[in-house]
UniProtKB/TrEMBL annotation:
Protein name in UniProt: High frequency lysogenization protein HflD
Top-rank lineage group of the source organism: Archaea
All residue ranges annotated as the Urease accessory protein UreH-like transmembrane domain in the record: 80-206
A Pfam family reported for this protein in Swiss-Prot or TrEMBL: DsbD_2
Transmembrane annotation, as ranges: 64-87, 99-116, 154-176, 182-208, 220-243
Organism: Nitrosopumilus ureiphilus
InterPro entries in the cross-refs: Chloro_ReproSupport/MetalTrans, UreH-like_TM_dom
Keywords: Membrane, Transmembrane, Transmembrane helix
Length: 247
């Protein structure tokens, strides 16, 4: 259904094309591999804040995750659109199917590290320069709330943009009459994916954060999210890396 609509995009009116880009982008965010990947980014250390501040934190955190994931996703799609349309580079849809292997590997990695950083403390080191010019590296825990890692959500979005239906959308947009309409369609699709991912992140993040003081329930969400991410990633690798090669 999705691919049939996209393949007929050239027959639609400009207004319908723009509306379609936004709505398809919102729907695109709800794909299982997207939900699994973003879900692993919503865990944080225990908070002593009241319910009001926790709800504010949920909205802020989920919004940032959605915005950065969508920005990364859109960056890749715009790049694909420019290569295919402006530089007239012939990109075969089969390439994006093969790139699903990268998404599968990423989901497995996210699943493992989501559990790993709960079992073991993962530290990052970042440069810090004093006024006298001396430079040293400060270590901090990976889930330290005082240090944000939105760039990870951006990277996940970039990788997701390389594979799957999102790339097909970018290729379909290049069949439109002019570059401006094609780029606008891709950007609206990206905006829709950001909106959809904010909703997804909020729905996942709310129960996670509200139960952060109940260790057993919070661990259930953490391990469940990690397991789902791992299973989806493994199924992608099995289907594309093994089954498709046997056919």
């Amino acid at each position: 259904m999705f691919e049939e609509i996209i393949s007929s995009i050239g027959d639609f009116t400009p207004a319908l094309i723009m509306g379609l880009g936004l709505m398809v982008g919102i729907e695109h965010a709800f794909e299982p591999d997207h939900i699994a990947a973003v879900g692993t980014q919503l865990f944080k250390r225990k908070s002593k804040n009241g319910i009001k501040n926790k709800l504010k934190t949920v909205f802020t955190k989920s919004s940032l995750v959605g915005i950065f994931w969508g920005a990364g996703h859109t960056t890749t799609l715009v790049a694909i659109g420019f290569l295919a349309y402006f530089f007239t580079i012939n990109i075969h849809a089969e390439i994006f199917s093969d790139l699903e292997l990268l998404v599968g590997a990423m989901l497995i990695f996210l699943g493992i590290t989501t559990i790993w950083k709960r079992k073991f403390k993962i530290h990052h080191r970042h440069p810090h320069q004093h006024s006298d010019g001396n430079l040293h590296f400060d270590a901090h825990e990976h889930n330290d709330d005082d240090h944000k890692h939105e760039h990870k959500s951006y990277l996940i979005g970039l990788i997701h943009g390389l594979a799957g239906s999102g790339s097909l959308v970018a290729l379909a947009a290049t069949t439109l009459d002019n570059m401006e309409m094609a780029l606008t369609f891709i950007l609206l699709f990206g905006l829709g994916s950001i909106i959809g991912m904010i909703v997804v992140s909020s729905l996942i993040g709310l129960p996670i954060l509200l139960t952060d003081r109940v260790s057993i329930i919070n661990q259930f969400f953490r391990y469940g999210t990690a397991t789902i991410s791992f299973i989806i990633g493994a199924s992608i690798l099995f289907e594309i890396g093994i089954l498709n090669n046997l056919q």
